[in-house]
Design goal:
The chain is of the alpha/beta class. The strands form two sheets. Strands 6-7-8-3-9-10 form a six-stranded mixed sheet, sandwiched between helices. It has a four-stranded antiparallel sheet with strand order 2-1-4-5, with helices on one face.
């Protein structure tokens, strides 16, 4: 049986990043496929978060950051784009700790669509319900949408953050250690949400949890000291003793 052609959503070529004297990424080349979940694993200070921040050019706001190499999304060099804000609207970001806006649950989700010019109340209502449903939160908050989002539990706030990230229908969703402050039951709910999203977008998951990468991802990449050690399908990364010895040792818990 012939496999369907795979289209790359993101192409990273020889990406290096320095913060002052510290080398955060060193000559990383990586392709991220359309509608896949790619997990990025590695110990602390491996460069995982820096890689995510490069995708939406958040490094533009770091004074001592020096970025070289090329990142293309849909074949277009992101550093050739004049409008960084437009790029960031295409890429949803979820950070390790939920950062709720000091406003109601409804307004947290409606904020970005309103900023993009959506004023029709019916469409806003539908968008809020859709995003909260996708984030597995609607049934828990539908009767208190006027309450402050910051009053939700930690797990609910993280799902609210995901709903907010989905509110502009991003092409790419980046999740950076989303479960670090979330209980196991809520983590499993969010994992189910993530698996359902890949039919509509490309998902990049940074995680220190090797088993989470194994459960969720189609492919997994290992970063170590700013270098890409290996990337492959999960059935290869997690089920063999050949290949790069550092990958084998990391997924087996020899170091990390």
């Amino acid at each position: 049986m012939v496999e369907a052609a795979v289209r790359n959503k993101i192409e990273i070529d020889n990406l290096s990043v320095r913060f002052g004297r510290r080398q955060a990424l060193d000559s990383v080349s990586l392709e991220v496929r359309e509608n896949e979940i790619l997990a990025i694993i590695g110990p602390a200070n491996a460069g995982k978060t820096t890689l995510l921040n490069c995708l939406n050019r958040m490094t533009d706001f770091i004074p001592d950051a020096k970025v070289s190499g090329t990142i293309r999304i849909d074949g277009q060099d992101i550093h050739a784009l004049r409008d960084g804000a437009a790029l960031r609207r295409r890429i949803g970001m979820v950070f390790p700790l939920p950062v709720g806006l000091p406003m109601s649950i409804y307004d947290n989700v409606a904020f970005a669509p309103r900023m993009a010019g959506l004023r029709d109340q019916r469409r806003l209502d539908a968008e809020v319900e859709s995003c909260l449903t996708q984030a597995a939160l609607w049934d828990e908050v539908k009767d208190r949408l006027g309450d402050l989002g910051t009053k939700l539990s930690g797990g609910q706030q993280q799902r609210l953050t995901i709903a907010r990230a989905l509110s502009l229908a991003p092409e790419i969703l980046c999740l950076d250690e989303f479960s670090i402050a979330v209980d196991p039951v809520t983590t499993m709910k969010i994992e189910e949400v993530i698996k359902s999203l890949k039919t509509r977008m490309t998902v990049i998951l940074v995680t220190n949890l090797v088993l989470q990468a194994k459960r969720l991802a189609d492919r997994t990449a290992l970063l170590l000291d700013g270098r890409l050690i290996e990337v492959d399908k999960n059935e290869v990364i997690f089920s063999r003793s050949t290949g790069d010895v550092k990958t084998f040792q990391y997924v087996q818990g020899v170091f990390g």
